[in-house]
Amino acid sequence: MSNITVSLNTLLEKTKHYDKDERWMATSDLCTFMQRSPGLDSATEGRICNAILNLLNDDSADVQAIAVRTLTTLYSICTPQLRTIASTLLGRLMSEEKGLRDVYANGLKKLLAVLATLDQRALDQQPQLQMQVVSVCIDPLLRGAVVKKSSNNNNSSSSKHDHVAVYSLEVLSELMLHFGNCEMVMAQGERIVGILLGVLKDGQPDLVKRAIPCLGRTTAHLSVQLVERTVETLAAEIRQGGSNSPIYVRTLSSLTQHCGRSLRSKSGLILEILLEFVKPNDGDSNMDGDDDDDDDEDQLDEEQLSIQTQLRESTFTAISSLMESTPSIVMGNDNNNSRANLIKITDCISYFLKYDPNYFESDDEDDEDDDDNDNEMSDDNDDEDDDDLEDDEDDLDAYGVEDDDDESWKIRRAALRCATSLIQLCNTTSTKSSSSSSSNATSSATDSAAAQALGEFLWIGNTNNDTTTTTATTTNKKKYKSLSSAILARIQNNAERESHVLLDALAAFQLLLQNTDGDNTNSNSATSEYIASKRGVILTTSTALLKAKAHVHGKSSVDVKVAVLAILQSLGTTTTDSTTTTEEQAALSQVMHLLEHDNKSLKHAALVYLHSLQLDQHALAAPYLLQNQQYLQKIVNLTQSTEEWYKIHALALDVLAQLCHNTQAIIHTSSEQQNQIAQTYYTALTPAFQQADLDTSIKTSTLLCTAALLTSSLLVNNQDKTTTTLSSNQVEQCVQYCCSKCQEVSVRSTALRALLSICTSEYLNFAPYFVSTLGVLADLLSKEQKLSVEYIRTFKQGVLDVLLAMLQNSNNTSGIDDNDDQIMSVMDRLLAQLGEIIAPNDLHISHFGLCVTLAAMNAMKNHAKYNIVMCKLVCRHVVSSLLALVSAPLKLITTQEAGSSTNSNASNANPGSSSSNLLTVVTQILCQLVFCSTTHAGSDAAEGCMSFQELYTSIHSRARECTTSSTTNSNSTASTKSTTSISSSKRTLHNLAVCIASITAVSTPAQLQQVQSELLSVLESPQGGDLQLMLALLTVGELGQRVDLSKSCSAFHIGLLTRYMYGNAAGSSAASAQQYEEEIRSCAAYALGHVCVGCMDTFLPLLLEAFEAAKATGSDGSDAAHAKTQYLLLSSVKEIIVYHLKSHCKDDNNGGNGSVALPHTLLQDIEPHLTAHLNQKEEGVRTMVAECFGALAALHPDAILAKLSELAARYGSSHDVRACWTVLNSVRCAIVNHVDGGVLGKYLPSFLALLDEQDLEVRTAGLLMVNSVVHYQPNTVTTEHDGSSIMSSQILPKLYELSKLTVRREVNLGPFKEIVDDALPTRRAALSVFTTSLKNCPQVIDIPAFMPILAASLGDVQDAQLQAHQIVISVSAQHPQALLDAVDTFVEPLEKTCRKKKGTKTGAELERLLEWIKSALRTMLVLSRLEGLDSEVHRKFCDFVDRIKKNPAYANMLAQLEEENISAPASRG
Prior knowledge:
Helix 66 runs antiparallel to helix 67. This protein is globular. The longest helix is centred in the C-terminal third of the chain and has 31 residues, at 1119-1149. The chain is mainly α. The chain is built from 72 helices and 4 strands. The strands form 2 sheets. A two-stranded antiparallel sheet has the order 1-2. It has a two-stranded antiparallel sheet with strand order 3-4.
């Protein structure tokens, strides 16, 4: 027997020991044993569980308590025993004996929580475990929660039962939280509600406290009808009045929190009831201590007054919950009702914000609206601060006798929180609007307008003069115009005597400013103008609160000031309006005084406010601070003390960094002030320069402030631009600090950004620090990093960014001394590191490394001594890595380079520009090496610099290695080369061909002739294998693009390239026939097209002659071979056209006039050959024709589109299906190539006429063309002419027709027959047009007319259904009402999809089916959340949703979708 078994047996025996201490210790040890010994067998777990359960009947309460705590350990370990444990705990909880009911209740709650979070594996072992435990618990808990009336003689029994009911309600509430949606629980929903309502009616405080949240959790899962009946019951009880009214109001609040969506139909009733309890009293002239109001209050005893206070507090809480759950009650589509509700709610809030019966105002105070007397507030001067104490004591006397039992503040606080909920609706609606995609433009505009209207109302009030919505408070002499006025009144003149309520008022006002002021989307012009008019009042009020002495607000004094600073921050940046300049300066002056306060939080808040002012753009604050040196010094002082909070130190530096970027403020300072300010800044930076062990945030802020100082106009004297305000030693120390921090991992990225700014500063001559900084960065690249690969990559990119900026700035390199050999030593180290980071495994970093290399070569180009040395260093360190990079099978070029790659453009290209792709940078480096070696040829200086011949040989050597490796791999794996191997080899050969052509183009004429001869030799007698031949062909093409080969190349070369395309070059033997494969033919076509680019006049006619030759010989070979030849010839033509198209686009982007476009004379030569191939049998040939026509149309839209329109009419009348298909695809390619929309619009109707063709392929091609138009140029089809647009008159009618088209036929497959729908691609294309239209031009779609089509698509095949699901989700955000009207028609197809059977499907097939079902469920959830969905009107759909949600087969999928937060934006409330 093992030691573990012996130990366990011993512990189990001790649980039966006569000594209670032994039993307690054994139970505790069992708990530890279970935690340390997982994976016990079920028999052992059962023994332990039984032993612990027996201890629940122990005589000792301590043993019972430890037993329950031990049981909580068993929950996650002994899951099979959970039902037994739950039953035992329930028995003890309901026992007639006195016991530890709280312990048992906590054990049960813990058990339910663990049960709800069991993993899938445990549930698979016992699938009914959760339901079994719930079935054990539900009935006893409901019986225990029933309130039993007892006689006065049996009070002890009643008290005992009440004690059981308390804990029963606690456990029942936990059960509802985790398992309220179980079918078993929902079946007893009506019984549960009845019991809980009985508890509420009984009114026992302990029971009510637990019954309210329990009822809320219960109704969250009940049917809408039952929830509505519950609300009606509560409403009836509230109308009857009585002492339980506060209870029922609190219950309504709980219901609105848990099931607000289900109460939308009853929201008006609930609000009407609630407003009755906070309805303002008529005739009250003053809430603050008003005599009439006091008479009513005096008639209430203390208990009644407490009940009334609790009732009003609960009512405001319920209104808050109602607005949060159902925003439509104040922001709904029904403007009249929602506006009336909004006015009533704000009137109630404003009224009770003044509710302070113990406050007495002086008789001579004006009763005017606070909006009219806000500007009359006194502005205390600094010399009156000594009288604040006496004034505050007088203010305290106004409150009368201090009453510790006064609870009126609770009502004011509840009213403020209700106001906060109303204000938050602005931000919630705006967030929903801004998060909506562009496809939801309609919904977003509606939400934004609603938020703006609410913001305007909260600030200005009811501007509609709607007398029908005015409440009874119109007779109130001091009724505030708006909610903002009411909140502001509580802040002014010490009106609020409770500091925590004042904090709530400040927070509410700050939120109102934050959500509606400035550039916020919730602010319209009226709101902004009103806030601007109140700006002075807000600033004056804020200044007064900031000046208040500490005793005024007691312990909350600091919190009040922090809240005021938050208000100032939300108020936004200062305007240039002179009317508020005084208030702005007064507030700013008071904020600056707070920087000397003892409290760190207050100083930090003041700095946060200053930072929020955006001092780099501030027209008032920045000059004010710079011209008052004492204020600037206060900020600097915060950086000098080591005792300051590190966040204060860092934030002070951030404020200084912002300030020195305000160029306009610095310009208006004198030279003396400028020097003084600069030295003050340097003083702020000094502590960080001298101390190494500072917090990371301080180092970061120091780096940013240093960079700001050295890149601002503050560095240069305003009068003498050649004089700096800092000495050279000080500047050097700043630069050295940035360089030193590059060594620290925590601030390295910030240091590199700072250096990047400094080295490109227009105010700083960085040349004296260029070499030293370059050395630091070179050494930094060489350091071995023990960090993550991703971080190292980011770090390298940061260093290379700085290096590139330094080397590209000509001011930095212009001052290099030709006698300074240190620069070459640094360059040697730098290039050595660059050679190591240039590798095929990271093209992005390699690109940066090569750009830095090229920038370094360009920087030294103007120094005759260093230019040749740089080339030698590049040859030594970089060329090997460079050639390894271009030899890798990677696509290094992303754009077609235009023009000749001569030495001039190779030298002057900007390596950091977006057009300089990696292969371009490579060729520029190689060209510079060739140019340098050619220039210094024959001299000793050129020794060590690779010549053209050496580079040419090295590149060819790489090519031979590539071909040898590929041949070896091919022979070892298969007799023929795989497609992947050929493709990879072709990419490598293309890279090498570009390099060879580039260096040949800048070589001497003799070297150019030598290369041409070698290429011709290879083409005439291919002896090196297929890959060598492919390299030669690609090189000929690249060289022909760069150099005019017409003088050295005869028609024989063109004929040779053409024969390679045919696959029957002269002299090829049968043994070498394998050389001429498809890739070789493609390379020949590529070469032929690019050679023509170099000399169009000479070679293009020869290419066109090849078309004629191919046509003449077409009948001699097979149709497939002839089609392939046509395809390749057309691809050569396409290379020519695409080259000119990209050159044209590049010239346009550079501000040119497109002069390199294909000439019209050549266009006339090409177009007939394209037209001749319009109706070819092979689809690939026709596709190539379409691509050629599309590119030509982008170059010459008028001519080509007119020709295509003519062809459409000609072939449309003859019903030539292939030609029509090619024309439509040509137009689609033209649209993709951004053809002129104005020209396209003229000819588009003739193309749309082809949609009437009966052939399905033509119709599908037409729809795809329409989809491209709507996607790329929607204005072309939506612009109206003569009252209608192309979209509405021609496209939409055909779209509705073709989206319903079905062409089914029966296919006999032998053992069985299958129905095939040939119109499926057409319907899918139509759906794609609808999807694109909803995104780019939703205004043209008739949504109601589209709903039947959408319903039919939901029942189509899988791919069409998935498209339809996405459309439903999109439409739900833009047009929810249209979906609501048709939602019942979606039930049948959605339910059919949801009930798809898995059958024997496995693997990818099963996964695809599950995703199909999940997409349908997602669509169902989106529809179920539409605002306005009614269970009576849309019963069919609601019943479908209930069936699906109750089906356990969909539980996991629904849970996943809920986690994804799938919801229609328009339905979020």
